[in-house]
């Protein structure tokens, strides 16, 4: 099958070359034979084209009054602020005159269809990774990360609350909690990944600062893929099914807290990872400063099983290489590279 002029004009050959190059690097470095220790970038908003390649959504499509914009912001070297995307607008719960609309107050964005390459439709394969990582600067509102896959039910979305180190619960949002309760299943139990309290599996900075200006406002959050909750049109559905990591179509962020007022979220990068590796940590410290996640954060979270200890009191101390291999997480994998 030969690509049409339309496919070629949309970067068909560039996408094919990029994907073939990525797969070749994986094969050359034998990354498929063990847990990857290097990050897999999904959306890098330092590139203005990534921002332009996303679409925004708001309740204005059904007559509501909320607004949503996604703009590219240039870097500020004086504060170590990288180029990034700014997701901003206003949430309004005012109902339109259309009597069919019973609830408003939402805004979101996501990347558009990734298109085709030589072997068909292009998806992200994040199966070898434990976490979805997001480097963001938040205003503290209750954002949700949305992941759509090539699922049997096309409208299914897997969601996870975007927790931050200054994630706040507003007293005036009790009405939003009631609306959330409507989307619970028959057991009336809120899934941990959508609650207001971050589950232990979520990795966020331990800083207590609430600053959201300059480099101090940036932080990196690691959300385990295994914790995402299957929803449909905002409602938790049963039976729950795991996120199809081999065929991820889109990633985005939404705001459905139904609290009237402005919102402002900055996003630098979204990637798949198994913890903070040496490939991440230099950039992490430069941008996030004192709020940076430490190297080998995956060790602390225990994302991989403890390797069996092979030393006893009667044995001599092993070489450094063997010591590294007995660690959990990225520290135990670095020697394999």
TrEMBL record:
Which ranges are annotated Low complexity under compositional bias? Answer: 201-211, 304-320
> Which biological process terms from the Gene Ontology are attached to this UniProt entry?
mitochondrial electron transport, NADH to ubiquinone; NADH dehydrogenase complex assembly
Q: Which GO terms describe its molecular function?
A: unfolded protein binding
The segment(s) forming the NADH:ubiquinone oxidoreductase intermediate-associated protein domain are: 44-168, 215-267
Report the GO terms under cellular component.
Answer: mitochondrion
Give me the ranges of the annotated region Disordered: 168-211, 292-337
Q: Which Pfam families match?
A: CIA30
Query: Which controlled-vocabulary keywords does the entry list?
Result: Chaperone, Mitochondrion
Compositionally biased region (Basic and acidic residues) = 323-337
Cell compartments where the protein resides: Mitochondrion
By what name is this protein known?
NADH:ubiquinone oxidoreductase intermediate-associated protein 30 domain-containing protein
What is the organism of origin for this protein?
Penicillium salamii
